[in-house]
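Researcher: Re-running this chain for the archive, since the previous output was lost when a drive failed. Same request as before.
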Amino acid sequence: MPFATDPHGKLTYPDDIKISLFEIIYDAFNPWHEDLFFYLCMEKASIWETLFGYVYQSNDEFEKDFGIKTMRKIGNLLHSQND
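Model: Regenerated structure tokens:
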């Protein structure tokens, strides 16, 4: 399998292979897309855009969305335990 060098000099898979692998994994979680928070640690914006159809413009935007979705999930779990 071919490797590419990332901007930091480390070996990684080429983008087309990464996208193919991530698509398989992401599609496997299709029934839970609304319930889970997906993110691609250290992947470039073009891969996010290809897979998810969006990209966070800043780390602050990512952290805010992650916090909101995490707190919503915690609230839903707490609510379901009280039912």
